[in-house]
Amino acid sequence: TSENALKFCSILTKAVVSTQSTGSNKIGLVKASDEKSDLTEKVVHEEIKKLFDERYQIEKSEMINHKAEWKALTDLLYRYKTLTGGEVKKILSGGVPEREPGDMLPSN
Question: Which pTM does this prediction carry?
Answer without folding.
Answer: 0.49
